[in-house]
Amino acid sequence: MKSWEASEDEIRAATLGGVIPGRSDAFDIGLYIAFPIMVIGCLIFAFFPLIVSNIDVTSVGPPPTS
After folding, report:
1. pLDDT 10s digits, 9-64
2. How far is residue 9's CA from residue 51's CA, in Å, rounded to a whole number?
3. Which of 20, 28, 53, 63 is 20 to 30 A off residue 10, Cα-Cα?
4. b/e for 20-37, b at 16 or more Cβ within 10 A?
5. Triad 31, 26, 30: Cα angle to 5°
6. Helix extents (H) in 1-66
């Protein structure tokens, strides 16, 4: 390590909350897991009007009226 480079403690002190760029913490890993689930859910929500016309509901019958 060069003398002009910041030490590990100096980098941690200069960042908000001790977050160092280039390192993943539990929050980042949680976002990596949740992001594909959110995207798939949004795509299903967006394309549901196109999908619902292909669902066979003839055997279900009318809803109860009472």
Report:
1. 887 777 776 677 777 888 889 999 999 999 999 999 999 989 888 888 888 888 88
2. 55
3. 28
4. eeeeeeeeeeeeeeeeee
5. 20
6. 8-14, 26-52
Amino acid letter at 17?
Answer: G
Which pair of tokens denotes residue 4? Answer: 């002009």
Which of 61, 54, 11 has the alpha carbon at shortest distance from 1? Answer: 11
Measured torsion, CA atoms of residues 22, 10, 30, 41, in degrees rounded to the nearest 10: -70
Tokens of residue 55, six digits: 């669902």
Q: What are phi and psi of 36, to 5 degrees?
A: -60, -35
